[in-house]
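Problem 12. The chain below contains 153 residues. Write out its predicted structure in token notation.
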Amino acid sequence: MPELVFEILSEEIPSRFQQDAARRLKQDLERALAEARLPFEAVATAVTPRRLVAFVEGLAARQSDIAEERRGPREGAPARALEGFARAAGVTVADLVLKETPKGRFYFADVRKTGRPTIEVLAELLPELIRTFAWPKSMRWASGSLRWVRPIR
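Solution.
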């Protein structure tokens, strides 16, 4: 299984922030990978005065596929409502199943989403992780909107 080394190089991080930053990076990365449906074995972090590093072991090559059941219109709904629901769910009207619920009979669609390659997901996930990382004290550096404890190199 692939591994990931995620390193952020910056100017010197104050010593009182270093250990807490490593702990929060581990928590944030584990949470982000789980939300992105990217299975992994372990996350470890390390920190030096100028680097914040995360190591992810056993990272899956693709996201997990998911199957979900989406509830649609009630029984007796107009045909246009069924067609619109089926189109939005990516199935045909013939694929819809009528099921009994505590609120009445509804049409349901089985929706399956295929996982994307890990590299595509990480390209979105890691920059967002940096943008949302919280420091006790941070500043905007250069002309961008990124807030970080010291300038990132």
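Discussion. The chain has two domains: 4-62+116-148, 66-113. Students who got a different answer should revisit the alignment rule from Section 12.3.
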